[in-house]
Design brief:
The radius of gyration is 18 Å and the shape is globular. With 214 residues, the protein is mostly helical. The chain has one domain. The protein is 69% helix and 0% strand. It has helices at 12-37, 64-87, 98-121, 128-154, 161-178, 186-213. Helix 1 (12-37) packs antiparallel against helix 2, helix 1 (12-37) packs antiparallel against helix 6 (186-213) and helix 2 runs antiparallel to helix 3 (98-121).
């Protein structure tokens, strides 16, 4: 990104990018803090992210502090992604036909945000069905959104095709995760996918920032 200053933020597109970056960073930081504070000791290989949002740990310990951090982290991320899905369409706005594909991808992305909020506000130990449904729909919608944008990237000469290929492979991995193809290492795969979500978004934000600055 170019140097951040007041003049940069006069563009609503760059402001949208900044909001998305802040939302992503606060999610990463707060969930890491929650892992450190997790009463029974958080295992990166055995526990899911959702364990941070339980009202009580599997051993029965109170989990209020971690739950609050988890809710703030995910709700903040979900809200911050809304302007991101809107602004990313502008990269494809000059490409007839492809711009409608980007609109579809962003609609899917926007629809994923309420489900991410659902993951946060419906603890897995008290609202198991709603929590699982929210998580499944979030991952699925986000995966298809990335897939749609990967197809759009193939037709955008400003992108290298490698980014489309990586996006398609990533989408397939997410779908396999949803259907528990990686059941033996699912907790690790879940975190890997979430951090890859952040990396994919970071690349797109960097692209938007550069395009706006030209």
């Amino acid at each position: 990104m170019t140097r951040l200053n007041f003049e940069s933020l006069k563009s609503w597109k760059r402001l949208a990018c900044l909001i998305a970056v802040i939302g992503t960073l606060q999610m990463i930081v707060l969930t890491l803090i929650a892992m450190i504070l997790y009463t029974d000791g958080y295992s990166f290989s055995d526990h899911y992210f959702s364990h941070l949002g339980l009202t009580h740990t599997p051993n029965g310990s109170n989990n209020t502090i971690c739950q609050i951090l988890f809710v703030i982290a995910l709700v903040g991320a979900a809200i911050s992604l809304i302007p991101f899905w809107i602004v990313i369409t502008t990269i494809f706005s000059d490409l007839e036909g492809i711009k409608y594909l980007s609109y579809f991808g962003s609609i899917l992305g926007l629809l994923s945000s309420p489900f991410l909020i659902g993951v946060a506000i419906f603890p897995g130990d008290t609202y198991g069905a709603l929590h699982s449904m929210s998580a499944r729909n979030f991952f699925l919608l986000f995966a298809v959104a990335i897939l749609v944008y990967s197809i759009a990237i193939f037709f955008n000469k400003d992108y290298q095709n490698i980014y489309a290929i990586v996006g398609i492979i990533f989408s397939v991995i997410i779908v396999l995760f949803i259907f528990r193809f990686f059941s033996a290492i699912n907790p690790i795969m879940q975190k890997t996918i979430i951090y890859c979500f952040c990396l994919w978004g970071a690349f797109q934000i960097t692209k938007i920032w550069k395009v706006v600055g030209t």
